[in-house]
């Protein structure tokens, strides 16, 4: 009996040491992050992982007077602080900024997956309950600091995406989209919302965010809905109308799939001066620290981007059965790689804003930061230039950095991006509870853009 207990104890120690070694090491990148960025990223041979590399920056929020570092020629200041896990933002016509103070719904994952998820989220500063609130931030004197804060909507269900079409405000909870009457200048909505469409929030409801984008003519809403798994390992029945951009016809509330095969699309935005809209997408995990690059891409009607079978224009994921090889001829390759495991969330275009050169005509992307790459990647805000043909080019240029300190702690995590009424960039920081404002001193927003 004693011998058996001793053997079990030795086995547990060995397993613990092995697990500790794996957790601290896992798969190490063999390429610099830059190699997995751009129009032609390096795609290494996949390195299948039976257990994910776990390497996440511990949340240690900013102290008073601390903050990230802006690119040369730009300054960063606190626009609003004391927020509860701020994420998506929306600017109203009068310049007020709505911010979703939100987090994931309660985690229902069981077993080792659930344990890993809960521990990771806690370490990353996302383990608390969702405030389930939309707050209104008002900078009445346009000095770059919020003067007043109001509770705009509350008692929601992990809210995220927001849009305004005429006098109707639309909000995407994780499980449904609602419409509310709105009058310019309102600081609170008290009317009961009208349900527009249900969204698939079937447990465990991984990738819970739902961003919104209105069509140019206001007749449709586009909704980004991430997958409920990594590679469909729990069956595709729970993936219905997920890993996709949905289109909702507002006159009928009819819901269809606009584009799919996108593991976790989040932020969406129109390329100014065109009818093309783009999204940032989080790709699959557990194929090594160099694979697969997250991406920025134009979203085309009827396009399929490969998930779960393939990635980056037809490369086969060896773990997924059936291989569905014939489907590759119908899949669209993404336009631009943002780096492996950087977790892009926020997207906005700089055209007509006030950041100035060299940030005048491209996309701003908030890279929330890796949890399963060695070394860390993301935890920054970058700029992707678009050429005269309206196509992304070159490598990402850093606009905001310094979110991870020398000890590897995350002082904050950039989440979503937008622009205020003066043309300054706003960046929500869910770990810091702050909205940062990035501006170029001495510049004035172009009059044409200011009038929009």
Question: How many strand segments?
Answer: 28
> CATH superfamily membership, which one?
TolB, C-terminal domain
Tally of helical runs: 3
Largest sheet: 5 strands, antiparallel
Question: What strand line-up does the widest sheet have?
Answer: 1-21-18-17-16
C-alpha termini separation: 79 Å
In round numbers, the mean pLDDT is: 92
> What is the count of structural domains?
1
CATH topology: Neuraminidase
Kindly provide the radius of gyration, computed on alpha-carbon positions and rounded to a whole number of angstroms. Answer: 22 Å
* Stretches with pLDDT under 50, minimum 5 residues: 1-24, 448-452
How much helicity do the residues have?
under 10%
What CATH architecture label applies? 6 Propeller
Q: Which structural class do you get from the secondary structure elements?
A: mainly beta
User: Which CATH C-level class is it?
Assistant: Mainly Beta
Give the overall shape. globular
In percent, how much strand structure appears in the residues? 25-35%
Characterise the protein shown here.
With 452 residues, the protein is mainly beta. The protein has one domain: 6 Propeller (Neuraminidase). 9% of the residues lie in helices and 32% in strands. It has three helices and 28 strands. It has helices at 2-24, 111-123, 447-450; strands spanning 37-38, 69-70, 75-80, 86-91, 97-101, 133-138, 148-153, 162-165, 168-172, 176-181, 194-198, 210-214, 220-225, 244-249, 254-260, 264-270, 277-282, 293-298, 310-311, 315-316, 336-340, 344-349, 362-367, 380-385, 397-401, 414-419, 425-429, 434-439. The strands form seven sheets. Strands 1-21-18-17-16 form a five-stranded antiparallel beta sheet, with no helix packed on it. It starts with a helix and ends with a helix.
């Amino acid at each position: 009996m004693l011998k058996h207990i001793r053997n079990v104890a030795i086995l547990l120690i060995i397993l613990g040491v092995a697990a500790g070694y794996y957790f601290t090491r896992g798969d190490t990148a063999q390429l610099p992050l830059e190699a997995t960025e751009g129009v032609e990223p390096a795609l290494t041979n996949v390195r299948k992982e039976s257990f994910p590399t776990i390497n996440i920056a511990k949340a240690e929020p900013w102290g008073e007077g601390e903050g990230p570092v802006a690119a040369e020629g730009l300054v960063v200041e606190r626009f609003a602080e004391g927020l509860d896990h701020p994420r998506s933002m929306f600017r109203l016509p009068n310049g007020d900024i709505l911010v979703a103070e939100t987090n994931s719904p309660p985690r229902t994952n069981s077993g080792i997956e659930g344990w890993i998820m809960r521990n990771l989220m806690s370490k990353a500063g996302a383990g608390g309950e969702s405030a389930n609130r939309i707050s209104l931030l008002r900078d009445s004197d346009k000095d770059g600091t919020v003067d007043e804060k109001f509770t705009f909507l509350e008692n929601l269900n992990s809210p995220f995406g927001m849009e305004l079409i005429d006098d109707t405000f639309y909000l995407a909870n994780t499980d449904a989209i609602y419409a509310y009457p709105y009058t310019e200048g309102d600081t609170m909505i008290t009317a009961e919302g009208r349900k527009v469409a249900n969204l698939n929030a079937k447990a465990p409801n991984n990738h819970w965010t739902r961003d919104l984008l209105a069509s140019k003519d206001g007749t449709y809403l586009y909704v980004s809905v991430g997958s409920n798994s990594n590679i469909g390992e729990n069956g595709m029945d729970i993936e219905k109308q997920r890993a996709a951009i949905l289109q909702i016809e507002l006159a009928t509330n009819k819901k269809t799939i606009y584009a799919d095969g996108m593991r976790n699309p989040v932020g969406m935005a129109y390329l100014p001066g065109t009818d093309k809209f783009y999204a940032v997408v989080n790709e699959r995990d557990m194929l090594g620290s160099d694979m697969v690059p997250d991406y920025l891409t134009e979203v085309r009607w009827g396009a399929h981007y490969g998930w779960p079978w393939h990635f980056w224009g037809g490369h086969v994921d060896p773990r997924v059965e059936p291989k569905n090889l014939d489907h590759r001829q119908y899949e669209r390759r993404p336009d631009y790689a943002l780096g492996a495991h950087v977790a892009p969330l926020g997207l906005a275009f700089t055209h007509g804003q006030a950041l100035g050169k060299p940030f005048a005509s491209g996309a701003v992307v908030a890279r929330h930061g890796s949890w399963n790459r060695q070394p860390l990647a993301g935890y920054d805000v970058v700029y992707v230039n678009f050429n005269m043909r309206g196509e992304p080019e070159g490598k990402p240029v850093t606009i905001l950095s310094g979110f991870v300190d020398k000890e590897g702690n995350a002082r904050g995590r950039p989440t979503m991006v937008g622009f205020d009424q003066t043309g300054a960039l706003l960046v929500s920081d869910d770990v810091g509870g702050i909205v940062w404002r990035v501006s170029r001193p001495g510049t004035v927003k172009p009059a044409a853009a200011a009038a929009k």
